[in-house]
C-alpha cells in the first residue's frame, strides 16, 4: 500500500472532525426533541437490508446501491434511504390496527456516486413517516412539522416548494397518451432543464393547443393563485381532485399560521418513483440543493403486503448545517490545568463544573509543552498548580 493511498478515503466518504461533529449533534438533538413533541417515536433499522426487498423498493437507481453478499449468497445493500426500511417494519410488525403510526429516525444512508459528481456517498438524514393516514391533514402536519423542526434548529430563512406528482403525471398522460412519453418529459423537470423541456414539447406531434398547455404548465409556480391557473389547463375533470387537495392543504397551513412559508411549484417532480401525491422540497439561503424533501407515497407499503396511506420527509443534516450560520454553534470548553499534588482537587472541581452543565477538560501540567498554545485552545483555563492554598507561579 502506498503512503498516498493510506490516507485516502473511498469515493464520496468523509471524515467528521470534532467541531463539525458537535454542530451536527446539537442540530440533531434540537430536531429530535421537536419531533418527539409532535408525538413521533424514534426507531432504528439495520444498516444492511436485502436487495430483493428494501433495495428494490427504495426507488434509488440500481447503480447507486452499495451491494455485497452474505455468507449464504444473498445480495445485501447498504440502506440507500430510510422510507423503504420503515415501510418494511411498519408492514411486518406495526400495522395491527386502524390508527395511524408516527415514526421518526436519524440515520446514515449510502448512495454510490460517480467520480466527477463530488457528492457524498454517505450522509445523515433525520425524518418522520406518518403511516396509515390518507388525509390531506397528514400532509399538512408534515409541512408544519418540518417548518417547526428547522426553526428549532435555528434556521429562519427557508421556503417550501409544494407540488403534486399526481397532477403533473395525470395532465401529461392525458395529453401525451403513454407512460413512456410522460417519463421522457418529466425527466426534464427533474433535471430542472426548462430549456430542454420547451424544445422537447415543440418537437412533439401534438396540436398547437396541447403544446401550449404543456408550455403553460411551466408557469405554475407561485402563491395560492397558481391553483386557479392550473384549473384552466384542464379539459375535463382529470386532475381536478389533485388540485383540490392542494387547495385544502393551503387552507390547513393558514390555520397553522404558516402559509407564508409555502409556495406552490407544480413543476416539482422527484427521482423517488414511489411518490403518489403531494410532495415538497425545502430551500434555504445560498445552498444549491434542497436541504429537505418529502411527500405522499400511498403505494409503497403494497410492496410489503400491506395497503396504507403514508407521507413523510427527510432533512439532510449536512445541507442544513451549510444553511445555518456558524455563530453560536460551538459550546465553550473549559480546561483545568493541574499538577500531580493537586490532582484530587482538580478532579473534584471538574465534577462540580460538569454537574453545572459545562464542558470541562482535565489536563496534567506535565503533558503540556506550550502553556500559551494550551491557553489559546480553550475558552478559559483554571490553574491548579503547585501546593494547595497558594497561587501558582505560571
From TrEMBL:
Residues annotated for L-histidine binding in this entry: 81-83, 111, 125, 129, 274-275
Aminoacyl-transfer RNA synthetases class-II family profile domain segment(s) = 27-332
Q: Which UniProt keywords apply?
A: Amino-acid biosynthesis, Cytoplasm, Glycosyltransferase, Histidine biosynthesis, Transferase
> What broad class describes the main subcellular location of this protein?
cytoplasm
Q: Subunit structure, per the record?
A: Heteromultimer composed of HisG and HisZ subunits.
| Family annotation (NCBIfam families) | hisZ_biosyn_reg, PRK12292.2-4
Query: What function is annotated for this protein?
Result: Required for the first step of histidine biosynthesis. May allow the feedback regulation of ATP phosphoribosyltransferase activity by histidine.
Name this polypeptide is given: ATP phosphoribosyltransferase regulatory subunit
Name the source organism: Cytobacillus depressus
Q: Recite the lineage of the species.
A: Bacteria, Bacillati, Bacillota, Bacilli, Bacillales
Q: Which gene encodes it?
A: hisZ
Amino acid at each position: 500500500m502506498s503512503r498516498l493511498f493510506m490516507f485516502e478515503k473511498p469515493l464520496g466518504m468523509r471524515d467528521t472532525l470534532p467541531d463539525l461533529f458537535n454542530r451536527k449533534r446539537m442540530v440533531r438533538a434540537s430536531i429530535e426533541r421537536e419531533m418527539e413533541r409532535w408525538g413521533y417515536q424514534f426507531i432504528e433499522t439495520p444498516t444492511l437490508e436485502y436487495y430483493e426487498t428494501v433495495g428494490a423498493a427504495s426507488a434509488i437507481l440500481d447503480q447507486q446501491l452499495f451491494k455485497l453478499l452474505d455468507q449464504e449468497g444473498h445480495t445485501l445493500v447498504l440502506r440507500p434511504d430510510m422510507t423503504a426500511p420503515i415501510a418494511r417494519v411498519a408492514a411486518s410488525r406495526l400495522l395491527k390496527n386502524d390508527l395511524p403510526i408516527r415514526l421518526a429516525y436519524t440515520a446514515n444512508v449510502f448512495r454510490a456516486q460517480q467520480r466527477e459528481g463530488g457528492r457524498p456517498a454517505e450522509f445523515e438524514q433525520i425524518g418522520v413517516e406518518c403511516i396509515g393516514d390518507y388525509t390531506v391533514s397528514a400532509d399538512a402536519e408534515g409541512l408544519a412539522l418540518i417548518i417547526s423542526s428547522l426553526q428549532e434548529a435555528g434556521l429562519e430563512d427557508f421556503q417550501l416548494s409544494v407540488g403534486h406528482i399526481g397532477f403533473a403525471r395525470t395532465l401529461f398522460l392525458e395529453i401525451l397518451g403513454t407512460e413512456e412519453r410522460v417519463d421522457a418529459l418529466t425527466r426534464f423537470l427533474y433535471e430542472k432543464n426548462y430549456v430542454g423541456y420547451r424544445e422537447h414539447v415543440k418537437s412533439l406531434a401534438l396540436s398547437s393547443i396541447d403544446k401550449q398547455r404543456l408550455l403553460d404548465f411551466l408557469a405554475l409556480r407561485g402563491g395560492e393563485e397558481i391553483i386557479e391557473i392550473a384549473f384552466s389547463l384542464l379539459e375535463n375533470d382529470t386532475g381536478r381532485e389533485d388540485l383540490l387537495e392542494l387547495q385544502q392543504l393551503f387552507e390547513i397551513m393558514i390555520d397553522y399560521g404558516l402559509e407564508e412559508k409555502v409556495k406552490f411549484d407544480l413543476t416539482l417532480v422527484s427521482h423517488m418513483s414511489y411518490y403518489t401525491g403531494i410532495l415538497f422540497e425545502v430551500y434555504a439561503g445560498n445552498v444549491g440543493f434542497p436541504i429537505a424533501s418529502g411527500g405522499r407515497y400511498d403505494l409503497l407499503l403494497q410492496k410489503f403486503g400491506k395497503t396504507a396511506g403514508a407521507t413523510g420527509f427527510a432533512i439532510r443534516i449536512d445541507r442544513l448545517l451549510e444553511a445555518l450560520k456558524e455563530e453560536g454553534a460551538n459550546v465553550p470548553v473549559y480546561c483545568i490545568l493541574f499538577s500531580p499534588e493537586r490532582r484530587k482537587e482538580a478532579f473534584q472541581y471538574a465534577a462540580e463544573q460538569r454537574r453545572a452543565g459545562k464542558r470541562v477538560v482535565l489536563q496534567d501540567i506535565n503533558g503540556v509543552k506550550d502553556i500559551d498554545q494550551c491557553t489559546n485552545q480553550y475558552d478559559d483555563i483554571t490553574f491548579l498548580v503547585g501546593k494547595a492554598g497558594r497561587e501558582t507561579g505560571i
